[in-house]
Amino acid sequence: MGPAGLRQDHAGAAAGEYSDVEFRAISAVLSGLLEVRQVLAEAAQRFAEGRRTVLFVDEVHRFNKSQQDAFLPHIERGTILFVGATTENPSFELNSALLSRCRVHVLEGVSPTDIVEALQRALGDRERGLGEEGIDVAPELLLEIATAADGDVRRALTLLEIAAELAADEGGRITPQTLTQVLADRTRRFDKGGEQFYDQISALHKSVRSSNPDAALYWLTRMLDGGCDPSYLARRLTRMAIEDIGLADPRAQSMALEAWDIYERLGSPEGELAFAQLVLYLASTAKSNAGYAAFNQAKADVRHSGTEEVPLHLRNVPTKLMKELGYGAEYQYDHDADGGIALHQTAFRMPWASGCITTRCRAAWKSS
Predict the structure, then answer these.
(1) Which parts of the sequence belong to the AAA C-terminal domain (predicted)?
(2) How far is residue 222 from each of residues 99, 146, 218, 219, measured CA to CA in Å?
(3) Which residues, listed in sequence order, are joined to residue 23 by a DSSP beta bridge?
(4) For residue range 221-252, what is the model confidence (pLDDT) as tens digits?
C-alpha cells in the first residue's frame, strides 16, 4: 500500500522477475470476475506442472468482497503468489480473510531529491523523455517542481512536461514565471473520504483539543488546500466548539455558527479567513467536556434505569384531586432557597475544569 504515483506495479513485476516464476498482472479497474477466474485457472495448470505464478492485482481495493474471495483457495493451496497494490488502507478495503493471508508493506512517498533525479533523467532521455527538446531549467526550479508534486513522480513528470510546452515560446527555457503559471492550481495529496481525509480531520480536532493553535491552523490549511468541502469543515468545527469547549466558553459555539454563516455569504477564498480565525480561537480558549460527558452519562442512565415515574414533588398540579394525591408535595421553590438553587436530586458527575461558569457550578454543588 502507498500513495499514488509510486509505481507499485513495478514492485509487483520485480517480485516476479527475481522469483523465477511466471508473472501475470491484472487491474481491478479493467478486469472482471471472468478474467480473474481465467487467470487463476491458468495458474492452477502451471502449478500442476510444477511452476508457480506471481499474480499482481493493481488497485485491488476496487474488487468487491466476493471478487476478493476468489483468490483465497488459490492462495491457501499455493497456486499463486498474490501481490496486491492499493492506495487505500487495506484494513478498510480488503476482506479480513484475504488480509490475514498477506503481509502488508507500506511504500512511502518519493522524496523531493529523488524526484529531481527522475526529472533530470526525463530531461536527458531522447527516446521517452524531453532530451530532443533541449529544455533549459535551473536546479532550484526542478526542486520546486519536485516539492509541488508532493511525493508523486508521475505528477512531477506531468508538471515538467507542461512547463516544457510553455517554455517553447521562451526558446526552451523554463523561467520562474513559467513555473508560477504551471503550479497555480496545484493541490496537495488529499483523498476525500479516504484514510488521509480522516487522518487530517483527526489531526485538526486533536490539535484544537490540545490547545495548539499553530498545529490546528496548519491542518485546517492543509484540508482547505487539498479541496475539502468547506461545509464539512464548518460542521466539524462546530462540533469541536460543542464537545471540547462547551460550557467553558459558550461564546465558541456562537462563533462557530457565525464563521459558517460568513463563509456561506463570502465564499472562497475570503470566507476561509473566518474558519482560520475560528480555529485559532477554539484552540486558544478554555476547554471543558463536562456537558458532553454529563449528557452521555444521562443517556446511559436512561437506557439502564427503565421507565422511571416522575417524582411526585415535580409533577404538575392542575386539579384538587392531584394535590390530594400528593402531586407537587414537598416541592422547594428555587427562588426562595439559599443561592437560588434547591438541589435535592441525584447529580450526574460533571468534571468541571475551567471556564466562565465553573465557579458558580461548584458553589451550587457545595451548597446542596
Answers:
(1) 133-209
(2) 31, 18, 6, 5
(3) 54
(4) 999 988 888 999 999 999 999 999 999 999 99
Domain ranges of the chain: 8-100, 112-182, 195-284, 311-367
User: Cα–Cα distance between 47 and 55 in angstroms, integer?
Assistant: 13
Cα 107 from chain centroid?
19
57-72 pLDDT, tens per residue? 988 988 888 888 889 9
Are 331 and 314 in contact by the 8 Å Cβ rule? The answer is yes
Integer Cα distance of 4 and 235 in angstroms: 29
The CA distance from 75 to 78, in Å, is 5
Nearest of 224, 242, 257 to residue 291 by alpha carbon: 242
Fill in the DSSP letter of residue 241: I
In this structure, are residues 307 and 262 in contact, taking their beta carbons and an 8 Å threshold?
Answer: no
Given the candidates 3.10.290.10, 3.40.50.300, 3.40.50.2300, 3.90.850.10, the CATH classification of the domain at 8-100 is 3.40.50.300
CA-to-CA distance for 211 and 284, rounded, in angstroms?
6
Polymer length of the chain = 368
Using DSSP's 3-state secondary structure scheme, residue 357 falls into coil
CATH topology of domain 195-284: Zinc Finger, Delta Prime; domain 3 (1.20.272)
Q: Is the pLDDT of residue 340 over 70?
A: no
The set of cell numbers assigned to 204 is 485538526
Q: Are 205 and 196 in contact (CB under 8 A)?
A: no
Domain covering 112-182: architecture: Orthogonal Bundle (1.10)
Q: Work out the widest C-alpha separation in the chain, in whole angstroms.
A: 103
Number of H helices, E strands in the chain: 18, 5
Whether 331 and 313 have beta carbons less than 8 Å apart is answered as yes
Question: What are 38-60's pLDDT values in tens digits?
Answer: 999 999 999 998 888 999 998 89
Task: Say if residues 343 and 368 touch (Cβ distance below 8 Å).
Answer: yes
Cell readout for 330 is: 414537598
